[in-house]
């Protein structure tokens, strides 16, 4: 007998799709998009349409495991849940007594976008333990801080209103790979006559479909934004009425922009001066114009300033006045659930009398290998895979290899990180547990119930941390809260965006639009002044140190590496697929750079810098501009011949604000392999 049930895609993607899962008896046989979802509208990306491969994959973890070999060997033996949880709780208690609870560090990110399995009972557990807090910076920290500083909240153009724009600019946004459900709205706008431009160092699938593709050098986006402003101010194209009513320090910004005439911008960015002028004029004239900005821009040393400058463009041109105008980087600021009730940060005061120290996840290699007081003696990893994802990979691996580091990994597969664990625990997938889901590409809050029984002995994160809390002797009432009680606590926030949103309503409707104004900044900004602050004191552009014009530029490593997202994976989530491994094992290089190096399409190459070398397969063509190479991220290192992926080459240098990683500022050289 067949049955169809509703669910939600939990992956780290702005779209947060509604799903329909078809069951034949107790087994899922098909996953498809829910046509009732107002944004995702019944279709899925190539990654999630094949989700059942992951659900039933023979390599999926089905029971707890205990290390049986050296760290990194990946040899384990089965253990029962009681054995594993008892041993983990005992070791965490010992470490807390011997070194203090801050010697324990949780490490997690957005392996799920669910509130409960991503930032619920786990946070309560570590707060009550007094463990170090994790500064979760690996993806969006610089951009999020830029949004808060500039606009006052993480809001933007409603996805459905892109259909109303007259000009759409995808700035560092490969929509076909990372935001596919925005594309139909862009198509609708183009049918009505809108123009579509892409700004990206890489000729992505999205760029290939654009009316115009501008390819700046990596990390030069701030200079390009200032160049656009230069033209807008110099030619009297700014919306003076909007500037006077809704902004501060416009004169400061105009003075800064005056320092970036188009010819200088061409030198700094590689974008022809004529293209800078033409785009600025068209952007100012199109009413409304929308920018889809994505997080690649902020993965640079001046990434935070670049995002701030791009966020200022709609205010200068007055595009916030009407639906379809403005910019979207994230909509996550709409999901104003009661995080204090959900995560209980007050519990850490019970142990420490203060907030625990905060450690930046983007520097996990440094954290695990350099002196700290107290040193990190236990690492609990879930919803993340730092052994593959974190920068400066050689140092990360050195840290994970420490015999005195007690490591627990909760995951679906034995990842690069899990190979170094002392215990590996099997987690449920999003089809096997309850969760409440936010989005960062639309304004719909969603609930999903389990549609399948857990595979093997897998357990939800919330259940795992409840069980650990019990074994640690934590008798606080909050550790007995059910998942539904936690959802009610989260939804009890007294915020206008959430008024009328209840568990019962979510149960009935599946997805509920939050009470966010259609045009969030038409009448002002949720900043202390109520205005958009255009102060340009920190918007001076300096090329990233590891760039063609930067302080560390060198003829030894003359190429700029971009390791942007691939199409058929999501970070490292689908690294078990052979085709994903193949897609992330290539290096795209321009013919002008390949020919003098003797590099031939389809042949093995070594990409290297002072931090190490990685072997990949050359893909020669106009996929990138000359002087830039691209290696799609991120391969499971364990599947490569040399046991490495491209993050070996990336430094742990941080962004200007937010403390984020600078994945896209990296100088390298490439040479053909001898065999």
Topology:
Layout: E1 2-8, E2 18-24, E3 27-33, H1 51-55, E4 65-67, E5 76-78, H2 81-99, E6 104-108, H3 115-119, H4 121-129, E7 133-135, H5 141-150, E8 167-171, H6 175-178, H7 183-191, E9 195-199, H8 205-208, E10 212-214, H9 221-234, H10 240-246, E11 247-248, H11 250-257, H12 262-269, H13 273-285, E12 289-293, H14 303-317, E13 326-328, H15 339-343, H16 348-352, E14 358-360, H17 364-369, E15 378-382, H18 386-389, H19 393-400, E16 406-411, E17 423-426, E18 435-437, E19 444-448, H20 461-471, H21 483-491, H22 503-509, E20 511-513, E21 532-533, E22 559-562, H23 578-583, E23 586-589, H24 591-597, E24 604-609, E25 612-620, E26 628-630, E27 667-672
Parallel strand pairs: 6-15, 7-14, 8-9, 8-12, 9-10, 11-21, 12-13, 15-16, 16-17, 22-26, 23-25
Antiparallel strand pairs: 1-2, 2-3, 4-5, 4-17, 18-19, 19-20, 22-27, 23-26, 24-25, 24-27
